[in-house]
Write a structure and sequence with these properties.
The protein has 135 residues and is α+β, with helices and mostly antiparallel strands. The protein has helices at 6-18, 21-24, 78-91, and strands spanning 30-31, 42-53, 60-72, 102-115, 122-134. The protein has a single domain (6-134), classed as STM4215-like (2-Layer Sandwich). It has a 5-stranded mixed beta sheet with strand order 1-2-3-5-4. It starts with 5 loop residues before the first helix and ends with a strand. The relative contact order is 0.25.
Length: 135
Amino acid sequence: MSYGVTAALQEAVYQRLSGDAGVTALVGGIYDAIPVGELPEIYLTLGPETARDRSDKTGGGAEHDFTVSVIGDASGFLAAKQAAAAVSDALIDADMALSRGHLVGLWFVKAVAARETSGDGRRIDMRFRARVEDN
């Protein structure tokens, strides 16, 4: 197995989301770590990831399940769901070039929408699966 493509995959996902007009019209920022200070009303975080070996005779490869979270401070889900839909539209079947390796495919797996435990905020955690090759 190769975990070597993981940083390149995250960078490509970030570039895809930050360059997508539908996403940027709905969110105020995309973060790997939550910054200190005031946050936008709706923002994205790139979150947890699980990788599994998918190497074969032709070379190294892996399957990455990663989370993109939509976090909003509104009391309703509508704005968060609109942002989540834009993220999904931007990522599914996206043709993304990686700085290392090759993206074979990227698919939506599931989403969980919930109220934040503190305040009226909303959170949608979307799980995506990417198959990558490292040759």
